[in-house]
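For practice. Any example?
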Amino acid sequence: MEVLHRYGHETLLWDEVGTGITDSDADEVARLLLAAAAGDSAAEDHLERQFQTDPKLRPAPTVTQLSPYGDPSVTIHLTPRPRP
């Protein structure tokens, strides 16, 4: 979720995003996020490239939104908005 927020995507904790990410993928993203937050510009560049090129890290045009209350899941169609 943090990588999505970092690049301007808002998702909810119960949105299915990042399906297909392996444990090693998640560990690598976490390592890059920590290094980038500490000011490592090479890690920031690598993280951004990975975010732009790995579709598993970005939301698809639709996401499945699960319910924190046990209601049936719904498909949400995402609409991109231009960044200011």
In short: Helices lie at 2-6, 23-37, 41-53. The chain has one domain: 2-77. The chain has a mean pLDDT of 86. DSSP finds three helices and three strands in the chain.
